[in-house]
Amino acid sequence: MKLQRTLMSLSLCLFTVVTVTVTATATAADTARGEALADGCTSCHGVLGASQGHIPSINQMSRVQFITALNEYREQKRTATIMNRIARTYTPEEIEQLADYFTQGLAP
Ligand code: HEC
Considering only CA atoms, which residue is closest to atom 25 of ligand 1? Predict the structure, then answer.
């Protein structure tokens, strides 16, 4: 009984550590995945998100602004011509990976 309880709290503890680590830091794999996903954005938003045309640049947004915008498009809460349709096709995890890619080196 006692051993069982100790094992349970140990695994709970490990689970917490792993979860916190995963959400706190973007791994190299996340960044690579973000780069691959970004190919679906750069035809409109420009290389690295620096637009050359009338579509807004997305290379100067903070991570929070970026994720908020994408989530609001996904939930149809932000006016859009196209982004509401595009954002719906990405999971919350993929949106974070896209944010990691487009907001590298900017404020959180
Ligand atoms: C077909 C062209 C097109 C593609 C592809 C596209 N976008 Fe957009 N994006 C737009 C347009 C146009 C807007 C302005 C809002 C609207 O009208 O939908 C916009 C707005 C945004 C904004 C808000 C910018 C701001 O200043 O508020 C973000 C963030 C964004 N897009 C991210 C992305 C990401 C990430 C991808 C790839 C997953 C992507 N977009 C793919 C055309 C595109």
Answer: 56
Cα–chain-centroid distance for residue 85?
A: 17
The string of pLDDT tens digits covering residues 86-97 is 999 999 999 999
pTM of the predicted structure, to 2 decimals: 0.81
Report how far residue 12's alpha carbon sits from residue 48's, in angstroms, rounded to the nearest whole number: 40
Per residue in 48-105, pLDDT (tens digit) is 999 999 999 999 999 999 999 999 999 999 999 999 999 999 999 999 999 999 998 7
Candidate of 35, 43, 82, 103 to mutate for ligand 1, largest count of ligand atoms within 8 Å of Cβ: 82
Instruction: Give the domain CATH number at 90.
Output: 1.10.760.10
State the distance from the centre of ligand 1 to the C-alpha of 45, rounded, in angstroms.
7
- Tell me, yes or no, whether 56 lies in a domain: yes
Angle at 48 between CA 43 and CA 54, to 5 degrees: 50
Which range marks the domain in which residue 56 is found? Answer: 27-102
